[in-house]
Specification:
Length: 730
């Protein structure tokens, strides 16, 4: 009997192979190939992700020669059931209770989306039920980035239940896998963690919702065939998930030493019912590969972000003075007008009014009241917002304002009207964080309200150019009064979809307003949010020493164009540490420069220095916004020096930043080799923000080859010594 079944199965396989036929599906960019094969069983398998292969057709004859892998180790969409025993990308219970899904290739199509952008959609169907899974790969040729997501369609009449619904699976084979990932919490975002993967599963994830990146950021770098992280050499795969909610990225090294990376929405407590005729679209997993080390992978991601990944990439992000650390909740119109004057005096381009301007019956004079009541607190600002905004414009400055529209205080008129809008599990305690609750964005009425907050805030003045969108708590005791009982587990996903639906409406109406994503600092730094936001507030920790580490980690994945970096007062309000003003400026100037302090407390000399540093920033800000980043020395290296540089695409200009993070002794001198310069060109070197340079090459014209080979040795050795050097080809 067994023999007959085996024979019948073999016949079926042959028939299937005959029906579809083995074929190669090739997704390519200028330097990267993602090569898949439809095998003899009609399964979509991944044969290669890495450097470009011009002719992959011979791979049709590919054999793994392994006898124990059941042929399932390279599935492009491994499912639960059938013969797969690895982490499934897709796990569902079908309408009839069947827990198996086995996908077979049906067809694929290639579309040209835009110049240099190609989309390949591969349709897979379950062998038994009416379920279609479309794998969508978008190749960005010039940026060497390929994004991947999938669309799950229930073609049956009855609902099915989705358990796992990852966006993409990438099988990789190397002798060693060195994973770099980014953990962190409030005021300590994007800290670099590194581990050599061993057999078994390593996952990075968040289950917090809203402040999604205050645990782990949904991104990683993977150095192949090495135990050491290298900026300039070796093969690196980097990835990031475009999702502003719970995520999970798994790295599973199996018994054959093959690594499978599976990334997507976190399945945690998120079973999703898919009705007949309904489609579930997963977020994009953004992937790149570089043979030029981690630096090459970062540059690819930055290039992609600046052409496709962030809102309005070509818009100049204004330098600014933000009122928060300078005034907190304690201000009058007069305070704000003086800040505008001071910002203008120091050459900044915008004034941003942070928290504390709203509330009627429950005025927002501290964090305990007012969230939800988005009308001007006339006791505090009797002339309204427009008078400040108009004043700023009159001084040649732009004007920005803070909102936190997803949140509600118990002490608010909104709570009195809509207690049912709060995220809550009926019958359980509604826990507060920072005295506030979260509004349930899975509810369309709440979505309308949140859109209305943005819209009505914009009506407060025709002079609002910038909105800082904050979110100061995460989800606890998840639950929704809106979602039906059987669909409570949809909450985590529907919240994010509701958030995006609101942002879609906002961007349709306000395409040019600069909007910052802030969530207690860098709690919402991801490419899902950046599709709608111009920039992020990188961290509430504005202390320059901590910022060197935070910005170093953040800019591994996200470009400096989007990373807000502010000079604040000393001692620093978060860490208590005092660093020199020059160090603070030199660190903040490697991102989107701003200030966040009370300028009235600065001395005349400090203001002069600020004016000078802001002015010099204008010489190279375009390099920060669109240049190539080269990390020269890591702040994590034990010798206590951090250095990085930005080089223009045509290599005609560069800016170098160097920071001493500890006393390095007079005998251990700085020696840095520059990168990215044209070896055959000569560069005039000029140190900025100093009267007397501590670099012998200042004011000289030096060869690109000399700077690359012999290097660059400014006399920096004391803690908080720093330098900014501007290079211009002659
Ligand atoms: C947290 C943000 O990260 C700060 O910059 C500031 O806007 C406060 N919230 C205001 O409440």
């Amino acid at each position: 009997m067994k023999r007959i079944i085996a024979f019948a199965a073999a016949l079926w396989l042959v028939a299937a192979a005959h029906a579809a036929g083995k074929r190669i599906i090739e997704i390519t960019t200028d330097d990267v190939s993602w090569i898949m094969m439809v095998n003899e069983r009609d399964e979509l398998t991944v044969l290669h992700f890495g450097g470009r292969i011009a002719d992959p057709e011979p791979l049709l004859a590919w054999r793994s020669y392994r006898h124990a892998d059941y042929g399932t180790d390279r599935m492009a969409c491994p499912t639960a059931g059938g013969r797969n025993f690895r982490q499934p990308a897709l796990r569902m219970t079908h309408a009839d209770g069947d827990m198996n899904t086995e996908l077979a290739y049906r067809s694929h199509a290639v579309e040209r989306m835009a110049d240099g952008v190609t989309r390949t959609s591969v349709e897979l169907v379950d062998r038994k039920d009416a379920v279609t899974v479309t794998m969508v790969y978008t190749a960005y040729e010039r940026e060497n980035v390929i994004t991947a997501h999938c669309e799950i369609f229930n073609g049956g009449r009855k609902p099915l239940r989705l358990h796992d619904f990852y966006s993409a699976t990438l099988p990789v084979k190397a002798s060693k896998y060195l994973l770099t990932h980014f953990y962190g919490s409030w005021a300590r975002e994007m800290q670099v963690d590194r581990t050599l993967l061993t057999h078994g599963m390593k996952s990075i994830e968040t289950r917090k919702g809203v402040r999604t990146t205050h645990t782990e950021n949904p991104s990683f770098m993977l150095s192949l065939d090495t135990e050491t992280f290298d900026e300039n050499c070796g093969e690196v795969i980097a990835g990031a998930l475009a999702w502003t909610g719970n995520f999970r990225i798994n790295f599973e090294v199996d018994e054959f030493d093959l690594l499978s990376i599976t990334g997507g929405i976190n399945p945690y407590a998120s079973e999703y019912e898919l009705a007949g005729g309904e489609r579930f679209v997963t977020p994009d997993m953004i992937l790149t590969y570089s043979a030029e080390g981690a630096g090459g992978a970062s540059r690819n991601l930055h290039d992609w972000a600046r052409s496709h990944g962030v809102w309005n990439p070509s818009q100049v992000r204004p330098t600014l003075l933000n009122s928060w650390e300078g005034a907190y909740f304690d201000f009058t119109t007069e305070t704000l007008l003086r800040m505008v004057d001071d910002a203008a005096d120091m050459g900044l381009e915008m004034f941003v009014l942070d928290d504390g301007w709203f509330g009627r019956e429950f005025p927002r004079n501290d964090s305990r009241a007012g969230l939800g009541d988005w009308c001007v607190n006339v006791a505090k600002l009797p002339e309204g917002i427009d008078s400040v905004a108009r004043y700023a414009h009159g001084k040649g400055l732009k004007f920005g304002i803070w909102i936190e529209p997803e949140m509600i205080n118990e002490k608010s008129e909104l709570y009195r009207k809509h207690p049912d809008w709060v995220v809550q599990a009926p019958g359980r305690e509604k826990t507060k964080i920072r005295n506030q609750w979260l509004l349930d964005l899975s509810n369309p009425a709440v979505q309308d309200f949140v859109f209305g907050v943005f819209d009505s805030t914009m009506q407060l003045s025709p002079h609002i150019d910038y909105v800082k969108w904050d979110a100061n708590r995460h989800v606890e005791s998840a639950g929704s009064e809106w979602l039906p009982d059987g669909r409570q587990s949809h909450f985590w996903i529907d919240y994010v979809r509701g958030f995006y639906a609101v942002l879609e409406r906002i961007r349709a109406k306000y395409p040019d307003v600069v909007v910052q994503s802030c969530a207690s600092g860098g709690g919402r730094v991801d490419y899902g949010a950046l599709k709608y936001f111009d920039e992020v507030w990188t961290s509430d920790n504005t202390e320059a020493l901590s910022r060197v580490f935070i910005q170093y980690g953040t800019n591994m994945i996200y470009p400096a164009l989007v990373t807000g970096a502010h000079v604040s007062a000393v001692p620093n309000h978060q860490t208590g540490n005092s660093t020199p003003l020059k160090f603070r400026f030199d660190v903040a100037s490697s991102g989107r420069l701003g200030m966040e302090l009370q300028p009235q407390n600065m001395t005349g000399r400090e203001r002069d220095f600020a004016r000078r540093a802001v002015e010099s920033y204008s010489m190279y800000r375009d390099l920060i916004a669109s240049g190539d980043l080269y990390r020269i020395a890591s702040p994590y290296d034990p010798d206590g020096l951090c250095a990085l540089m930005y080089v223009s695409k045509d290599k005609s200009r560069a800016v170098v930043f160097a920071y001493c993070l500890k006393y390095r002794s007079r005998t251990l001198k700085t020696q840095l080799r520059l990168h990215g310069l044209a070896r055959d060109r000569k560069y005039a070197v000029r140190e900025l923000n100093v009267d007397k340079s501590r670099y012998w090459g200042d004011g000289r014209v030096l060869g690109g080859d000399l700077l690359v080979e012999k290097g660059f040795n400014p006399d920096l050795y004391k803690i908080y010594d720093s330098g900014v050097y501007y290079l211009e080809a002659q």
